Amino acid sequence: MTKPEDIRLVRARDRRADPLDYRQVRRHLASETVVRVAPGTYATASSWESLKPIDRHLVRVREAMERSRGPLVLSHLAAAARWGIDILGSWPDRVDTRVERATGGRASGRLRRRAWGIDGVDVTPWEGHLVTTPAQTAVDLASVLSYTSAVIVMDQVLWARRGGGALATPVDIERVLRESAPARGIRSSSLTAGGSIPTSTSQTSTTRQSSMAWASTSIRRC
């Protein structure tokens, strides 16, 4: 499979000395030989289709970062693409960001702004922006995806056999769950009783099944 950094992107902003011929661009779009990756950014259809869906979204995330006039707080599916957390179903064209609650959620040409607030959110720096940590991302996604999809996301985050190890530990997930606003549809069950939290360092299939069970009991719809 092609990697995101391997495809050539044509950006209008990089062609000031030799501007794009938009009539030609429209013809290529109509013939489906070219795809619009983001506003003013294009790729050949063949190179775009050679990417995995998660990697296509990562390219869109990076384009949004490049075009942004200020630092973004990348979250939800944008953060999932950053951490390599795949999902069931299709990836969106818009890039998820978190904004202050007072600003209100809205979607623009390339961004989906989620007014969930940014105070106390678990984030880490990434190329001049902020991105929610794997634990925060898993909890955020659990509030917007289906129950099955949420469990799959949680399992990927806890998966110890992932290259480089698990993205987060059950303790990380539980901490974010405790600190999340209950209005978002997430609540933590009593997971520590009887040693029910699986260790993220185990390599056995039994423990991974335990992680799946833990994930399914740690996420509840209100």
Structure in words:
With 222 residues, the protein is of the alpha/beta class. Helices cover 37% and strands 14% of the residues. The chain is built from eight helices and nine strands. It has helices spanning 22-30, 45-49, 53-67, 76-83, 134-142, 147-158, 170-179, 205-218, and strands at residues 10-11, 34-38, 41-44, 73-74, 95-98, 106-107, 111-114, 123-126, 129-132. The strands form three sheets. Strands 1-3-2 form a three-stranded antiparallel sheet. Strands 4-9-8 form a three-stranded mixed sheet. Strand 8 (123-126) and strand 9 form a beta hairpin. Helix 3 (53-67) crosses helix 4. The protein starts with 9 loop residues before the first strand and ends with a helix. Residues 187-204 have low confidence and may be disordered.
Topology:
Layout: E1 10-11, H1 22-30, E2 34-38, E3 41-44, H2 45-49, H3 53-67, E4 73-74, H4 76-83, E5 95-98, E6 106-107, E7 111-114, E8 123-126, E9 129-132, H5 134-142, H6 147-158, H7 170-179, H8 205-218
Parallel strand pairs: 4-9, 5-7
Antiparallel strand pairs: 1-3, 2-3, 6-7, 8-9
Structural class: alpha/beta
Shape: globular
What is the C-alpha radius of gyration, as a whole number of Å? 19 Å
Q: SSE string, helix = H, strand = E?
A: EHEEHHEHEEEEEHHHH
Total count of helical runs of at least 4 residues = 8
Q: What separation lies between the terminal Cα atoms? A: 40 Å
Strand content: 5-15%
Please estimate the helix content. Answer: 25-40%
Q: Main β-sheet, in a few words? A: 3 strands, antiparallel
What is the averaged pLDDT score?
82
Poorly predicted ranges (pLDDT <50, ≥5 residues)?
A: 187-204
Q: Give the number of DSSP strands.
A: 9
Strand order of the largest sheet: 1-3-2
